[in-house]
UniProtKB/TrEMBL annotation:
Top-level class of the enzyme under EC nomenclature: transferase
Originating organism: Luteimonas gilva
Residues binding ATP: 180, 225-230, 264-265
Lineage: Bacteria, Pseudomonadati, Pseudomonadota, Gammaproteobacteria, Lysobacterales
UniProt function note: Catalyzes the phosphorylation of ribose at O-5 in a reaction requiring ATP and magnesium. The resulting D-ribose-5-phosphate can then be used either for sythesis of nucleotides, histidine, and tryptophan, or as a component of the pentose phosphate pathway.
Necessary cofactors: Mg(2+)
Name used for this protein in its record: Ribokinase
GO molecular function, one term: ATP binding
GO biological process: D-ribose catabolic process
Domain Carbohydrate kinase PfkB as annotated: residue spans: 1-308
Involved pathway(s): Carbohydrate metabolism; D-ribose degradation; D-ribose 5-phosphate from beta-D-ribopyranose: step 2/2
Binding site for substrate: 9-11, 36-40, 135, 265
PANTHER family: RIBOKINASE (PTHR10584:SF166), SUGAR KINASE (PTHR10584)
A single Gene Ontology CC term: cytosol
Subcellular location: Cytoplasm
Amino acid sequence: KVVVVGSFNVDHVWTTPALPRAGETLSGEYATGPGGKGFNQAVAARRAGADTAFVCALGDDLGGQLARSLAAADGIDLRDQRSVRPTGTAGIYVDGEGRNSIVIGAGANAELSEDFIQAQRDTLATAAVVLAQLESPPDAVLAAMRAARAGGAVALLNPAPANATVTAELKAAVDILTPNETEFAALLARHVGERVDGDAIAALDQARLHAFCRELAPEASVVVTLGASGCFVSHPAGALRGDESAYYRIPAEQVRAVDTTGAGDAFNGALAASLAEGGDAPFATRVRFATRYAALSTERHGAAAAMPRRSDLAERFGA
Ligand code: ADP
């Protein structure tokens, strides 16, 4: 089972020819639907085949009702803390090339409490993987990661968004970190004292990337997602069957991306689902599954709504 601890937002999405600049007024196609990294990842984990619970905070409003009905429709076990603040919202612009700009109103997500996480002890105890992001308060995220470890589950942290802080304490509590390029650059600046531009990460020498990862999170596996360039994986000594630390690159699948919003969420949810399956498939096989899943999610518009089902994956990639 996968337990996702994180955010739910009502997304408002405008598709425009170009992203708006300061002072500019554009018109675009509008759509609304569910989002939030937590919910997106929970939907991805569920549709990728895992029994999934989603722990979040919701307002007593239409957004909260939307979360409840959508979780039910996807068969997600929703554990929601009720907040007096409005359900989270996000304003998203997507341009003709699938690039995006996003503004988030955290609302109820900012209220998710350590106490509520503790109260979900029984749910967390049944997890094989606990997956969290940083759109929730740091105390709640830390409590979730610690509960994972305490229950023998894999503590998987997607350190997103990039402007959120990862404390040394939190870093030490996770088994797997999955930053994208921007988030990885932010982590390197904060914890390793290296200034590398996010756009330059994919072109870095792999041995150098590995050294950065080992210094950043000595005990954790790090999966740096690189958009259309796939991802880079770095394991500490002892994580794989051998005793040596290891690194490798997994290329992205060739697809016709129309909207990469939520590609990282698709990747994380699918990786969690694959890890939760157990068995003795190597880590790289699970990352490849997540890579295919994420690629397919970029061929459709939207975030949670665009998450493929396992059958779509089988149809497309034959696995
Ligand atoms: P985020 O959405 O957090 O910025 P990335 O852009 O790194 O995350 O995407 C996560 C994963 O999704 C990548 O590692 C890759 O496997 C897949 N992906 C993203 N963009 C594309 C694309 N244009 N084509 C194929 N796969 C993609």
